[in-house]
Specification:
Elements: E1 3-4, H1 6-13, E2 22-27, E3 34-35, H2 39-50, E4 55-59, H3 79-85, E5 91-92, E6 100-104, H4 107-111, H5 125-131, E7 135-139, H6 148-155, E8 164-171, E9 174-181, H7 193-201, E10 202-207, E11 210-216, H8 217-230, H9 243-249
Parallel strand pairs: 1-3, 2-4, 2-7
Antiparallel strand pairs: 4-6, 5-6, 7-11, 8-9, 10-11
Helix pairs in contact: 1-2, 2-3, 5-8, 6-8
Bound molecules: zinc ion (ZN).
Length: about 250
């Protein structure tokens, strides 16, 4: 097995990324092969290319598994975002279940407005990112990890989205209880791929050993919203035991 270096990553990323771009990265470190230096080198490759004139966002979701303190609560979206979260100069949003981290130009601004129940509705970080011309990078993962599809679900005002739960979030020296909307099952999100067009809105690249899906976030959001309005139950994962999808199926009658 060959060793993947930062220089190799940069050379491959430069096929579709450049200084000043806004990118949201969903990632699998192991998909790249053996990366010398691990997650840190992937992040450094990205910051070297995008520079502080652009913006890098990553999901640092916590799912309400423990009381949320943006300064310390660990994320469950992979080692790359978890490493990114702890880097100097990286900001984190305040949503108690679906926070984002961001670095670069406008990071604080894009993370503001996340103190709402619905993590992906209009005015939340990923929706703003799409409207501001950002690009989504699925690095070794599929649409099952593409949170932009959650934004499209919210934009389409699907009937089954109102799934509140109580979570604890840091306030002063303690925690307070707030309501957050559960985002639901994403395991069926690849079913949207044919509607985005294989060689149309989503372009494929290779970085080291990983396949990358690269897309203009707003183009996919607009197409996704239209698709889901026409097919509101498209994203059912098909597992008869899926709790979230069973909640959705109850609206089918
Ligand atoms: Zn499901």
């Amino acid at each position: 097995m060959s060793v993947v270096t930062r220089e190799k990553l940069k050379a491959d990323f430069e096929n579709f990324l450049a200084a000043g771009m806004k990118i949201a990265v969903h990632s699998s470190l192991s998909s790249l092969g053996y990366v010398e230096g691990g997650a840190t080198e992937v992040i450094m490759a990205l910051t070297d290319i995008i520079t502080s004139s652009g913006l890098i966002m990553m999901p640092t979701f916590t799912y309400g598994r423990q009381p949320y303190d943006p300064d310390v609560t660990i994320s469950y979206t992979g080692i790359i975002p978890e490493t990114f979260r702890k880097m100097g100069g990286v900001e984190r949003s305040c949503h108690p279940t679906h926070s984002y981290c961001a670095w670069g130009r406008g990071a604080k601004d894009i993370l503001s407005g996340h103190e709402v129940e619905e993590p992906f509705k209009k005015g939340t970080p990923l929706e703003k990112f799409a409207r501001q011309g950002g690009f989504v990078v699925l690095l070794g993962v599929t649409h099952a990890a593409n949170s932009l599809i959650h934004v499209a679900q919210e934009a389409a005002q699907l009937p089954y989205l109102n799934r509140p739960k109580k979570v604890l979030v840091k306030k002063g020296a303690g925690f307070k209880e707030v309501i957050a909307r559960r985002a639901g099952c994403s395991l069926g999100f690849d079913k949207i791929a044919p509607f985005l067009g294989e060689d149309d809105l989503v372009r494929k690249y290779t970085v080291a050993e990983a396949e990358v899906l690269f897309m203009n976030a707003n183009d996919v959001l607009v197409r996704g919203e239209k698709t889901l309005k026409e097919n509101p139950f498209l994203l059912d994962c098909g597992n008869p035991d899926c709790f979230a999808c069973n909640e959705m199926r109850a609206f089918k009658i």
